[in-house]
Amino acid sequence: MQRISIVVLIMICLSTADYSRGVKAPNKEATPEPMTIQTNVTQVLSKAGVFRRDFPTALAFLESWNRINEPKIHIFPDRVVGSTQYRTREEAQRAAARLTEAMRAARSRPKAEAADLLRGAPAQAEALLKVDVIKLLPDDDSFHVAWINPSLQLLTPNVSLATIQERLGPPERSTPELVQNDTERRPVVLTLHSYAGGSIVFAESDWSPVPRTVDRVIIDVRSTTAALF
Amino acid sequence: MKTHLSFKQIALRSGIGFVVVAAFFLASSNKTDAIATLVDIANDATDPLNMADTEPSIAVNPTNPLEIAVVAFSGNWGTSASGAPIGAPVWRSNDGGATWSKVNQIPQPVANSSGPGDQKISFNAGSTLLVAELGVTFSIQDFVFRQTGPPNAALTPGAAYGDDQPHLDVDKAGASPCFNRLYSPWLNFSVGNPRSTVSNSINNGVAMANVGAGDNSAFPNRTTRIAVAPNGKIYIIYKTREGIASAEPNQMENAHFRVMRSDDCGATWGALGPSGVSVHGAAQVQTFFTNQFGNPAKGKFARARSSDAWIAVDPGDGDVFTVFVDRDASGFGQVFAARSTDQGATWTVNRVTDGTHHSAYPEVAVAQNGTIGVLYIDFDDSGPGTIFRHRFARSFDNGLTWTDQILQSMDPAPLTNASSGFLWGDYEGVTAVGNTFFGVFTGESIGRQNRQLDPIFFKETAEQPTETQFSYAAKIVCGLQRDPKDMRLARGFYATTINIHNPGDDAAKFFKKLALSFPPEEQKPGKIFRISEDTLKPDEALKVDCNDIRRRLFPNGFPTPYIEGFVVIESAQSLDVTAVYSTAALDKDGNVTTHSGIDVEQINERKRKETTRELPDLIPVPVNGGFCRLTPDGKLIVTVKNQGAGPAGPSTTQVSFNSGSVSLPTPALAPGASIDLFFQVPAGCFRPDCGFRITVDAASVVIETNEANNVASGSCLG
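Predict the joint structure of the above. Result:
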């Protein structure tokens, strides 16, 4: 089995990798403290003011990512991308099939404090949240499982970090993360602004045409699922 | 004619005028370890968001060396929230690098493209700016952006082509069969073993033809760099990756660095065989393939995976020079230079570096006079942190021996925009026009409110320094000697300050270096360190002292509690040099107590021999006692001749008609050589006669024996 290129954290070279499945496990941060998350995840998601029409649907099906053990998902304006890097398209397609199956399973009832966040989400969303396999360029050269659909509206583009801080207060932590790739192109450098004990991360990218704006929101699947359902 | 060339003359004729040269020599001399001129391209006004400015590339307009362009990762293209286009920047200077503006002129090439992701910049012979850039949509695509309007207007993207790490060069030789052809090497990742590929274009990138070049039959390729010879032959260097040789940090791989040549304007690449020629012979070398160049236990580190080779051609005689990395018996990755005098068929190799530190990221340029310049980076982790040093080495004898200087020492740890793993990028930039090297690297900012990474411009002469007329050797003792039984130096605290005064009527430029006598102990010579190059105006004075030496040369502290040696000053002008020695006693616990002595010494002046150099002399050549010669279609013929004994680099010839001016690039001219240039006569000149004034070397880039014979006037009868 071939080694694969992996995310390189600032000051750390290589994180652990799950070579037994031929995939790379992304950064493994400590799972945030549950009570704190339960309190804060809903507040952060409610108050951020950056999410758009289809975000409640994506959030309603967050459990399906949890069922396939995806550790994190990246919310972009028009797609949701799992963080696991697959070396081959075939491996990623097998994971995509598992995700499709997981989306058909019965959904858990949301906790009361999360009900507003998930209001209006349809019972089925396979047409809207189309499961596919993509490359997450320019981040890396691996294959990722994703929800894509040109009509998806998930995240308002180019929201400034200053706006986020006005709404949520200063982040608990801000850390740079260099995403190394297999080729010689310029690597992506993300600056991660963490809230809710790291469950919700607003990330800016040095590839963004407008500096100091939110490029994506990274959700810790396990802790956020536990906070919502 | 043999003529001595003073420092002042060099400054006066270096293309930007003495005032500007002196200004930025003075501005930079106290802030860096540099001997070359350093200028921080960015400032708080042009870089308010403190971009990292990594992976810079530089181009100098061959017809006007005052015009310089630099690209770095200083901003991205795209669209704003309102849909307004945002251009990625080009840093531009019109005064030889003294001042810079940021021009956002690289547009998003296609919808939804992110970038730039890799880049290289060049001018063609007609002063057209060209930039190769990598963009990302759903795949990797490269584009050549070309100037189609005024210099600062938005550039125009060409056809999508290529894949990873596009580079760029243009055939600028008017006599070449491939004149003005553009070449862009890149790495093709879409095949099993990645392959070095070169695209070419006859229309500045409007359309690109992709041609496989490297041999990937057995091993993947990497690190493709290109150079165009004055005879139109094109060379690339690339490496074949032949297996990992050691682990991180500073991971090495086995490799061959191979040169391939195209003799048909890039249509095929087999002129040196299907795999090319290994510049270091049959044996493998070990070169970096690492995400951890540096010492991860002592701070930030860099990636060096395609940062190990470069190629250039001597614009005068067509010799080919490559630089590459090899871990030799020293145990360190070292920079080597290889020279071919037979168009790449055979090579001779010499080491550039000194075998004491890991060294990588070599880039090479060759000046008109054949001087070779190599920009590279090494690191010193002997102290508590990792100090990365941008260095510039020159060879005046085709690579046999090297003169090296530290451009800047940098600890990236406190620089917030320095991302460990990608500190300055995979490569940087150096080029040569005439007898001047121009370069750019991503280093520590100079004079910014926040210490950070910035693009740092440097300029260095390719002229071999004239033998200095005067030298001064001032004894220096710095530090603390606590041992009462040590008979080398009595117990105490020692400080030295050396004061230098310019008593002359002209500015004095001089070198300072430190020759250590301790350490090491006893009968062994110590190391020699270059301190800096400085300029003093008439009656100005400066000093070098123990603190200054420690800060510049020993940022992690002196190697021993005290040092001894000489500060040697070399100058073309006579100077006043005085040393002040002061001491303080120590108490029984070894603490410094009261001042105990001071001594002031006038340092003797030693007069040395001058050397001489052959120089060119450009003139407009009269015909039948005048300068009016017209072609059948009405163009003015101007003959430019080099009547001097030395070669002349490329220059510009200008004709000012009474109805407007026209300039034409003038190629390098060997001693005795001449060339005819054809100037379009502007409309309205004949009224009824057409008067004009010819100026050779109009941009004053060529140092000549006689600067007073560059201008001639003439008239054609109407």
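DSSP finds seven helices and eleven strands in chain A.
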